[in-house]
Amino acid sequence: MMSEQMETVGRVNKLSFGYKENIVLNDVNLKIKQGETLSILGPNGAGKTTLIKAMLGQIKPKKGEISLLGYQAGDIGIRRLTGVMLQVSGVPDMSTVSEHIKLFQSYYPNPMSYQKVLGYSGLQEKEHEYSKNLSGGQKQRLLFALAICGNPKVLFLDEPTVGMDIDSRKALWEAIEQLKLTGTSIVLTTHYLEEADRLSDRVVILNRGNIIHEGTPKEIKTLIQVKCIKFTCNVEITNVSRAVNLSSHYDSDLQQFQYTIESSCAEETLKELFNRNVPLSDLTVTGADLEQAFTMINSLDDNSETILEVE
Ligand SMILES: Nc1ncnc2c1ncn2[C@@H]1O[C@H](COP(=O)(O)OP(=O)(O)OP(=O)(O)O)[C@@H](O)[C@H]1O
C-alpha cells in the first residue's frame, strides 16, 4: 500500500498537449512516488506514450508543468537519472548484446554493473550474440537491459512485455519487482490487466487524454468487473438494470434478436431478465475485455463509487 509520506519524485501539473488540432492530453495531473510502480492503462490512442514522452521532455507541452527528480522536463539531468524502454525502440543489428550494454553504460555517470544488467534482463546466455540473431522476446529483454544501464531512479517502460511468451514475461516481472525493491520508481504502460495487477501500487486510467480513474489495482479490478452477456430471444428488450451497453441484431431468417449486453453486475442483469420471463436461448456470459472495460468506466464515471462498494 502506498504511503502518503512517500517522497514525490515526479509531478505533472495541468499538462495539455496536442498534435495540430488533435488534443492528445487534456489537463493531466499525475504524481510519481519514490519506489512505487505506477501503471498507466488505457485503450489504443489514449495518450499513454505521449504522456511518457512529455515527462521525458521529448515533446513540448502546450500547457502545464512537469518536474522529475528535481529537474524540469527536457533537462539533461533527467536523462542521467532515468531509463526508458519505448515501444518503437530498436538497436543496430551488428553489435552483440555485451557491446550494446557496455556502450549504454558509458553514457551514464553511475552505471549499473554489467553482471547486474545481464542478471536483471536474463540475457546471460546471449551475452555474445549479435542482436540480429535474438528472438523478438530476447530483443525486448535487450531493450530492458539498455533501459536500466544507468541505474535509473525512475524507469519508464512502455508496453515492455509485448511479444513475450509467458515465461519471459514472468521473468521480466520479477526483474521489475526487484528493481522496485532497490527504490527505483517504475512507470509502466500495459494492455495486460494481469501485468498491471501484479506489479502496480497504483493504476491510472487514461482515456482520450484524460485521467478518468486512479486507484489501487484492487479498486480498478472491482471497477471493471464488467461481463458480456450474449443470448438470442424472440422479444424486444430495451432496458435492463446494470447494463452499460445493450446492442441487438434482428436475424430475419431465425426471426430472433441476437443480444449483446455489457453489464457491471451480470447476476443482477440476468436475474432481472429471468424475472421478466424473457425466453433466452444460446446464453453465454464471458468476462469483457479491457477495451470494453474502459468504455464502461468512461460511461460510469459519475457513479463509480457505487460500483466500488460492490466488493
Ligand atoms: N507523431 C505523431 N503525430 C501525430 N499524431 C500522433 C503522433 N504520435 C501519436 N499521435 C496521436 O496521439 C494520440 C495518442 O497516441 P499515443 O501513442 O500516446 O497513444 P497510446 O495510449 O500510447 O496508444 P497505444 O496503446 O496504441 O500505444 C493518437 O491519436 C495518435 O494517433
From TrEMBL:
InterPro entries named in the record: AAA+_ATPase, ABC_transporter-like_ATP-bd, ABC_transporter-like_CS, ABC_transporter_ATP-binding, P-loop_NTPase
SUPFAM superfamilies: P-loop containing nucleoside triphosphate hydrolases (SSF52540)
Record has ATP-binding as a keyword: yes
Pfam family, one: ABC_tran
Hydrolase found in the keyword field: no
Keywords: ATP-binding, Nucleotide-binding, Transport
Single GO MF descriptor: ATP binding
Residue intervals of the ABC transporter domain: 10-233
Superkingdom assignment: Bacteria
Record-given protein name: ABC transporter ATP-binding protein
